[in-house]
Design a protein that fits this description.
The chain has 276 residues and is α/β, with parallel strands linked by helices. It contains 12 helices and 10 strands. It folds into 3 domains: 109 residues, Cobalt-precorrin-4 Transmethylase, domain 1 (3-Layer(aba) Sandwich); 110 residues, Tetrapyrrole methylase, C-terminal domain (Methyltransferase, Cobalt-precorrin-4 Transmethylase, Domain 2), CATH 3.30.950; 44 residues. Strands 3-2-4-1-5 form a 5-stranded parallel beta sheet, sandwiched between helices. The protein has a 5-stranded mixed beta sheet with strand order 6-7-10-8-9. Helix 3 packs across helix 4 and helix 11 crosses helix 12. The chain is elongated, with a radius of gyration of 22 Å.
């Protein structure tokens, strides 16, 4: 029975790869890579000659049996384009299938953009919520932000440069002027970390074209923050839920918890909106 090694690779600086990762990549019979071109560049840099096969979002299901067959005769490694495989990349399906087939899974830890951003953010690290990329559609983004607005955990998101401004605008709308760390190109030549409040971040990137890959780390909700919802914001949240067809009692409970408003007052506003 073989072992599936989950090998973390650098997110920018090649010096961040570990000695164990290099040894593992040299010894396995096959490397399953999200981006074979990037992986071959990495292997060439370190003088590693290994057989590489593709494993990405579009072929991950059809490749499962092939990779399980490889595991039946030896060890294989899984690598993503950069960072830790399985975080926002294909991987968990292969891990689950490997476990089910009775093979061993062994992580080879290393670089991870969300964790690197979190520890450099200056925000609490004892409890955090990683949510990957914000939804591309505005309605889905709003729905997600409404659901998490009242949570006390530090929030971590990934974001593409062309969606950064739209996301910051909606983060400001639903989360207010919370503290944020906007990290860009971590460990690379043009690494940048902006510290401030969400409105300041939006203003900064409105004046320059966002470039590179971003990780956003945002302060969790506090009791004081929940009490800052304006009447207009409460009404907007109620209106969207009513249009969606949610039950008034459920709406009142959720919005009251998120906004800091008394449930009775929220329910009264729902009644007023329904009678208009």
């Amino acid at each position: 029975m073989g072992t599936l090694y989950l090998v973390a690779t650098p997110i920018g600086n090649l010096e961040d790869i570990s000695a164990r990762a290099l040894r593992t990549l040299k010894q396995v019979r096959c490397i399953a890579a999200e981006d074979t071109r990037q992986t071959r560049k990495l292997l060439t840099h370190f003088g590693i000659r290994a057989r590489v096969t593709s494993y990405h979002e579009h072929n991950k299901q059809v490749k499962l049996e092939t990779l399980l067959a490889e595991l039946a005769t030896g060890d294989i490694a899984l690598v993503s384009e950069a960072g830790t495989p399985g975080l926002n990349d294909p991987g968990y399906e292969l891990v689950r299938a490997t476990i089910k087939a009775g093979h061993r899974v062994s992580p080879v830890p290393g670089a991870s953009a969300p964790i690197a951003a979190l520890v450099a953010s200056g925000l609490p690290t004892d409890a955090f919520l990683y949510l990957g990329y914000l939804p591309r559609k505005s309605a889905e983004r709003r729905r997600l932000l409404e659901q998490i607005a009242g949570l006390p955990y530090t929030l971590i998101f990934l974001e593409a440069p062309h969606r950064l401004l739209a996301s910051l605008a909606e983060l400001e709308k639903f989360l207010g002027a919370r503290r944020i760390a906007v990290t860009r190109e971590l460990t690379k030549l043009h690494e940048e970390i902006f510290y401030g409040a969400i409105p300041q971040a939006r203003e900064k990137y409105a004046l320059q074209e966002p470039r590179g890959e971003f990780t956003l780390v945002i302060e969790g909700s506090t009791k004081a923050a929940r009490q800052t919802w304006s009447p207009e914001r409460v009404q907007a949240a109620l209106h969207e839920r009513l249009v969606r067809g949610d039950a008034p009692a459920r709406i009142a409970a959720e919005v009251a918890a998120q906004s800091g408003w008394p449930r009775r007052e929220v329910y009264t506003m729902i009644t007023e909106l329904e009678t208009r």
